[in-house]
Amino acid sequence: MAHDHDKVLESIVGKVVSQVESDLISQIESSYAQSLDRLRASRASVESEYNRIVEAASKQAENLKRQIVESSRLAVRNKQLLLIEEAVNDVFKHAIARIDSIRADERYESMMRRLVENALDAIGTDAVLECNDSDRDVVDRIVLELQHKYNFSIEIGNSIDCLGGIRARSKDGSIILDNTLDSRIERMKPILKKDIARLFMV
């Protein structure tokens, strides 16, 4: 009887132990599965963060590259504009330096005659002509010829500070025509800049 009782007790204990082992194994397997899931999720998160960092770094590098390229282009363009400005100034420096040497040339007197005639056409016999001291003799000679040719008097005003050429005004000052070499040079500069800029492809 006692022997049967021990067998029953042993059987119950065996079942309990077996159940406990089964529960433990199940919990271990569940924990293992959860750990794997967390690891996979963590890996995916790490990879996503890594990709995000790489992408951000790539964009930053691209932006920096673009800024460097744009800065270089701007520096090159500024250098080109500076060279153009220097080239224009150099052209006119040479032109200005030659004015005194060609003042006695017949072509210079022909140019002055055209400027005087243009002034008279624009303003009429009411014009007062002005020039610098160096051109005074030439202008006097031209005016004398024109007065004989057209039979009207032309007034020559005070000397002005300029490289050469003529400035004409009406006697009441309401009309002023600036045909000095200084003003003509300034008017030519933008045109010359465009021509030189084409050489630089700016």
Task: Describe the structure in your own words.
With 202 residues, this protein is an alpha+beta fold. It has two domains: 77 residues; 98 residues, hypothetical protein PF0899 fold. It has four helices and four strands. Strands 2-1-3-4 form a four-stranded mixed beta sheet. α1 runs antiparallel to α4. The protein is rod-shaped. The mean pLDDT is 76.
Overview in brief:
The chain has helices at 2-102, 106-123, 136-150, 181-200; strands at residues 127-130, 155-156, 165-170, 176-180. The protein is of the alpha+beta class.
Brief descriptors of the model:
alpha+beta, 202 residues, rod-shaped, 4 helices, hypothetical protein PF0899 fold, 2 domains
